[in-house]
Design a protein that fits this description.
By secondary structure, the protein is an alpha/beta fold. It has 10 helices and 5 strands. About 45% of the residues lie in helices and about 10% in strands. Helix 8 packs parallel to helix 9. The N terminus is likely disordered.
Amino acid sequence: MKKMLFIACLLASTPIIHAQTSPAFWQEIVAFKKKDSIQAPPSNAILFVGSSSFARWQDVNNYFPDFTIINRGFGGSILTDVIRYTYDIILPYQPKQVVIYCGENDLASADNISSVEAYNRFKTLFGMIRTNLPKTNIAFISMKPSPSRASLQEKMKVANQMIKTYISKQKNASFIDIYDAMLDKKGQMREELYVGDRLHMKPAGYAIWQKAILPYLIK
């Protein structure tokens, strides 16, 4: 009887233990899985994955009406988070193209990582996708010039350039540069493109992204 009671208590406590030890953003991943279980995602689609700039782009399909897009951005994520969940929110969709926006939060994290480390994280993610989805096109959107992160812009430009150089040597891959397009004629950041936190974009910012991304999307 005591043994059975112990097992019952253990089983009852398991969800609590799991919740306490779940990695960052697990609840967001669970929500994606639940959504997919209710309505099967489209096949042969374009997958947008990355951080909050994608997570907040809830009407992304309206910007690209001629394409089928699955948005799996989750706010605040860094490249290691996307790497962790590659088998959950990238590979199962078997997309014809993966469009990535991530890395900005890595450089802004308390860990104070270098441009080289952000670049290495991207290469790891790229390698995982390419190994498992060898025919899938992989596109990376450059880190944007966020006014709230003005002090980090040199690190971001270095990381952008390293990633751009790496992608230029890969087959079936694209680097989508939105950085300069988001600056004014004097090369200064445009505050009017951002909401009050000076980090996330208004529709005007996404309109710039739309124009830059469109030529790279796979039909």
